[in-house]
Amino acid sequence: MHKKLKSVLSAGVASLALGTGFTGAASAEDLVVMLLPENVNARWEAQDAFFFTKKMAEIAPDVTVEVFNANNDTATQQRQAEQALTRGAKVLVVIPIDGEAAGIIADSAAESGVPAIAYDRMMQSENTDFWVQADMFATGAAQAQHVIDRTKSGDTLVLLKGSPTDPNAGVIAAGQMSVLEPLFASGERVLGYENWTPGWDPAIARRSMDQALTQLDNNVQGVVSSNDGNAGAAIASMAEQTGLVGNVPVTGLDCTTQALQLILLGEQTQCVWRPFEEMAGVTAEVTVALLNGEDTSSLTQGDVGNDAGARIPFVPVAYYEAVGTEGVEYVINHDLAVEKDAVCVGAAAETDFCKS
Q1: 314: β partners
Q2: How confident is the model at residue 166 (pLDDT cuts 50, 70, 90)?
Q3: What's the CA gap between 160 and 250, in Å, rounded?
Q4: Helix, strand or coil for residue 131?
């Protein structure tokens, strides 16, 4: 565990129990359940769930919080939600695996009179009560613009999009295309290859990049990647060719430790970081307000539409575009889960940033 997380835990924060099913009964009157989508991305458990339970322990210590991971199985996530409602959960915080499928969770919660908060990813239901998220459309646009700014007229780009079942992936892709589509139409840039990445699985992204390089005979000048897993896969694929890594801009999302290392090495050129502590913290504040029957309007900023035709109160957070050593340093200084010692290992340890 990182030193920063150790220091927080030692301050007396309640421990976090994770599982795929419910094994115990909450003794407190108020039970809040957070449902995670998968463990492919470490952030869900190490950051989002950690920061949510930390904040809840601070502002509502008498509330029992339980966190469960569905391991990319929509049926498991729906079952976890049903069991939580049966056990009397007062609020559900849901990070959907599949936004459409998770609509059932929001509908079931509404039938039980329980608010359902969509965290990070939208639940496509008219019964979704809140959505907590950064502006993912703007995030996608920032990724695309980063690559455009580092390529020239006529250059060929590869798009490695996210999971087709993740509602965020579609919004990110739409943001990317808001920048790219006019350039593709005019011939200023060429769309050489694009593909979705089911489950955000880096192995699938790697196969996509391998196919892109084969089909394009390595004629690739930019990779618009929707997250860091895709970015790492693209870089690994390009590393097997000559002259690509370090010369092809590659974007990402989440600013994982690996992504920060790749940025220091000049192999990944950008990642978008979101303040997970802030996201989880404001979610806890909304949760407690709901438990107490308090007004939540001061925590929201307008509303957004979902695929069910509903307008969902939106709880926004900022994002930061990390580029170069300055971006790496910013993330390290602002993300409790990222430690410089963990970033500065292996080849990255030999960079000027890590030696300073």
Answers
A1: 131
A2: confident
A3: 10
A4: strand
User: Quick one: CA torsion of 143, 265, 332, 132, rounded to 10 degrees?
Assistant: 20
Cβ(115)–Cβ(148) under 8 Å? no
CB 199 within 8 A of CB 72: yes
Which tokens belong to 214?
Answer: 């084969």
Entry field: residues in the chain: 356
Spatial contact of 55 and 32, defined as CB atoms under 8 Å apart: no
Using an 8 Å Cβ cutoff, are 76 and 70 in contact? yes
Burial (0-12, 13-18, 19+ Cβ within 10 Å), 240: exposed
Q: Which tens digits make up the pLDDT trace of 109-151?
A: 999 999 999 999 999 999 999 999 888 999 999 999 999 999 9
Q: List the structure tokens of 247.
A: 């010369």
pLDDT tens sequence across 21-80: 444 443 347 999 999 999 887 789 988 999 999 999 999 999 999 999 999 999 999 999
Element (H, E) at 90: none
User: What's the rounded Cα separation, in Å, for the pair 184 and 231?
Assistant: 22
- Alpha-carbon span 56 to 60, nearest angstrom: 5
pLDDT in tens, 300-318: 988 989 999 999 999 888 8
How far apart, in whole angstroms, are the C-alpha atoms of residue 67 and residue 93? Answer: 9
- Whether the CA torsion 89, 94, 98, 99 is positive or negative: it is positive
Question: For 305, phi and psi rounded to 5 degrees?
Answer: -90, 150
Burial 127-152 (b: 16+ CB within 10 A, else e): bbbbbbbbbbbbbbbbbbbbbbebbe
